[in-house]
Amino acid sequence: MDLGRLVRTAVTNATRAYPYALITVVDGPEDLRLPAEQHPAFSGCYDWHSAVHTHWLLVRLLRRHAGELEPEAAEAALAVLGTHLTPANLTAEAAFLARHSSFERPYGWAWLVALAAECTTAAAEGLEPAREWAAALAPAADVVVGLVLDWLPRAGRPVRDGTHASTAFALGLLLDAAATLGRDDLDAAVRAYVRERFVPDRDAPLSWEPSGQDFLSPGLSEADLVRRVLAPGLFGDWLEAFWPGLATAEPRNLLDPVEVRDRTDGQLGHLDGLNLSRSAALAHLAAALAEADPRRSVLETAAAHHLDAGLGALAEEGYQSTHWLGTFALLALEPAG
Q1: Pfam families under this entry (predicted)?
Q2: Is residue 239 part of a domain?
């Protein structure tokens, strides 16, 4: 995989103004503004959440894969991040999030907190500009954490969806970020919710997947979330009850890659992301099981097949795919080595 191409595409998309899907509740004339005015940090990449996780992608590539990038690509990434992740821009984003308390809940919320955590880790590992990015992001991340802590006790049943509404996928990102940001309150709230709402689940209806526009697997997202909460031995037992057919490689519809018939259609193209997000989740589940566990090889084989299928989409042109798929490609590539 050409990681330099990921950087170049991300830089181009992060600075592309249009088309842009402006998703907001209009409370008054002040909300009818151009995307760059409304969201000075995250006004590229077609929509707000894609802009946020594209910035996460750039930071992640600089932190973990700098040695694989050409100097020009790294410099371009640094320039975009330095221009967008400023105190003034992120103060505006924090104010918007505080005024619109359900905006981008929970997917965009989770990616904002993940971006803050990635910058914090990058700064701790010696990427000097990341110190400024992390400091600038902190107020917006604090707003989101406050919103999450208010929302989770009221949320009730999780949204078991394969798109942006997925509770499980968002909580996984939030849980990963909580320790890095020193937010024990967030960590405790997410773990309590997972234990109450997800750990009791048995016999998931995995044969129903996928829906026609999924980019996430409801079942795999849930299993990958519970993996983060339960100890390995307990998780293996939980997975047996949740997915009893795994040892015999069933159901096949969850283990075989999904065919994508029209990548020019933004909703049907979600299925390319599904292959990539499935690959990452399958690999994480495999790594959580013992070496001798026969389910591990089933999961590893399925992860590799999904990765091959998903990466093929990155060779395609078209903003409907390129504005977001790079992030999910990296999520799949990293556990695959």
Answers
A1: DUF2891
A2: yes
